[in-house]
Structure prediction request, 210 residues.
Amino acid sequence: MKLLGRQIGYGFVIVLGCLALAIFLTVNSVWLFDINIHPLNLASATGLTAAQMHHDYVRIIGYLQLPWIPSLKLDYFFSSTKGLQHFHDVKNLVLFNNAVGIVLVPLGGYLLHQLNKKSLTWLLITPIKVIITASLVIIALMFVNFEQVFIAFHEVLFRNQDWIFDPNTDPVINMLPDTFFLECFLLFFVLFFGAMAAIYWMGRRSLRKN
Prediction:
């Protein structure tokens, strides 16, 4: 029972730390937006140049990530009150994730180091298998009907309808199509699965040592 409790506790902290880190890296992947400007014909959708869109996208990311920026001010898009409220709600979630990451990434790294040093990383194999299985189910649903998964995602995280943008009142949505958000989800899973695969490999190695 004591071993099971340690397995669950360590697995919980390490997996949450990996989640927070993967979210942080995904949110800050401005390069992903940049490489989509031409393939997704965002210039035609917005009437702006790639440089102008990059400029305002960086302003959005800066607003979401930096707690000392109190309001979002875009240079090439106007925004409605509801649109700005949604960005504010997203900012709160991003800052919460960052706070979780600041605590759990180093703590998870420390716990992982201690387990690896004692050849006990195998304790994490079962939690990782459960997490990966659940993640693969979500990915399968995304490929079947991403729009429905995207809607459910917002309904779980937000208690209002401000996330439903009208291009007439919040034209910034024209440079953020569903395809781009799908790629963001996929990037997150690549980063998260990469971390899980590395820990799983460490767990298998510790099993061989034992």
